[in-house]
């Protein structure tokens, strides 16, 4: 009897999906083009960022570890986009099988939430080091937070936990798969566990968002207060400017993720009850548009690194300038001594950039302390006192 019931349920679900086509034909080509652009620009930006963090940027701190992992998460997410482009380019037809569909979809979401969590950890790290460590220098826990070991441990735990959660979702069937379809709206009345897990991830996002608001808000307020109370300090104008820049991170995060997660709760709730065909089409269309903004974050993360971190920006510009000048030089030189001298100057110039400031953005790369030989024209966090 139970076998017959399950068969009837699957048949009814398949018939319901076929009787209610969800795809908007006019949206198919724009989605393929936009995902292609996001993939190309995001791939170039994140590969460049990863190269800078690994080989040019000499800061061995916790934020560098987190940013390397953000770039890796963005790259894995971007690797899922060509499959979406192929799906839309082929008329919303999936030809790679249901297991591959689940792998691509789940890896996309896993890396999106890994990136979100890492951004929250960066804000928490900056807040603790700028405001929390000054009054408690002798605490063992806070002393441990001053190094980069805690960020390495946290990233290992984050990736391990994410894989533990995503592997069963890829391996286990939900019973609502439709042949030839992927990335579309699905009813989950028979797969409530997945729906509740999606709601849990929405709650994780809002928790991270609150952490970002509180951390960056207090850092910005502290900088603005220092600029207002001590206008005669050499870096007073930098405090106000850096406080303004701190909201760029919140703005990008809000644009990319808040619309999707504000809508996500309604989307999941509709999957758990019977809704009309019009409602299903509206949910599917809105989800596709909101998801584009979330994928766009993988392009904007590298922009944030290079625009807001002075040391990363200078190292990148200097390296690219040297690469372009090398490309315009003759392939054969008459003097090996000249080539050796050029290489030596290249390394010296790069080394001169790397030990510069901790970055013009205190919320990403500044630390509560800076050495006399480790400064830039604007080091806004260092002079702050409790």
UniProtKB/TrEMBL annotation:
<dbReference type="InterPro" id="IPR048057">
    <property type="entry name" value="GPR34_7tmA"/>
</dbReference>
<dbReference type="InterPro" id="IPR000276">
    <property type="entry name" value="GPCR_Rhodpsn"/>
</dbReference>
<feature type="region of interest" description="Disordered">
    <location>
        <begin position="361"/>
        <end position="386"/>
    </location>
</feature>
<dbReference type="GO" id="GO:0045028">
    <property type="term" value="F:G protein-coupled purinergic nucleotide receptor activity"/>
</dbReference>
<dbReference type="GO" id="GO:0005886">
    <property type="term" value="C:plasma membrane"/>
</dbReference>
<feature type="transmembrane region" description="Helical">
    <location>
        <begin position="32"/>
        <end position="54"/>
    </location>
</feature>
<keyword id="KW-1133">Transmembrane helix</keyword>
<keyword id="KW-0675">Receptor</keyword>
<keyword id="KW-0812">Transmembrane</keyword>
<feature type="transmembrane region" description="Helical">
    <location>
        <begin position="247"/>
        <end position="269"/>
    </location>
</feature>
<feature type="transmembrane region" description="Helical">
    <location>
        <begin position="195"/>
        <end position="216"/>
    </location>
</feature>
<keyword id="KW-0297">G-protein coupled receptor</keyword>
<feature type="transmembrane region" description="Helical">
    <location>
        <begin position="66"/>
        <end position="87"/>
    </location>
</feature>
<keyword id="KW-1003">Cell membrane</keyword>
<feature type="transmembrane region" description="Helical">
    <location>
        <begin position="107"/>
        <end position="128"/>
    </location>
</feature>
<feature type="domain" description="G-protein coupled receptors family 1 profile">
    <location>
        <begin position="45"/>
        <end position="305"/>
    </location>
</feature>
<dbReference type="Pfam" id="PF00001">
    <property type="entry name" value="7tm_1"/>
</dbReference>
<keyword id="KW-0807">Transducer</keyword>
<keyword id="KW-0325">Glycoprotein</keyword>
<feature type="transmembrane region" description="Helical">
    <location>
        <begin position="149"/>
        <end position="171"/>
    </location>
</feature>
<comment type="function">
    <text>G-protein-coupled receptor of lysophosphatidylserine (LysoPS) that plays different roles in immune response. Acts a damage-sensing receptor that triggers tissue repair upon recognition of dying neutrophils. Mechanistically, apoptotic neutrophils release lysophosphatydilserine that are recognized by type 3 innate lymphoid cells (ILC3s) via GPR34, which activates downstream PI3K-AKT and RAS-ERK signaling pathways leading to STAT3 activation and IL-22 production. Plays an important role in microglial function, controlling morphology and phagocytosis.</text>
</comment>
<dbReference type="InterPro" id="IPR017452">
    <property type="entry name" value="GPCR_Rhodpsn_7TM"/>
</dbReference>
<comment type="similarity">
    <text>Belongs to the G-protein coupled receptor 1 family.</text>
</comment>
<keyword id="KW-1015">Disulfide bond</keyword>
<keyword id="KW-0472">Membrane</keyword>
<feature type="transmembrane region" description="Helical">
    <location>
        <begin position="289"/>
        <end position="308"/>
    </location>
</feature>
<protein>
    <recommendedName>
        <fullName>Probable G-protein coupled receptor 34</fullName>
    </recommendedName>
</protein>
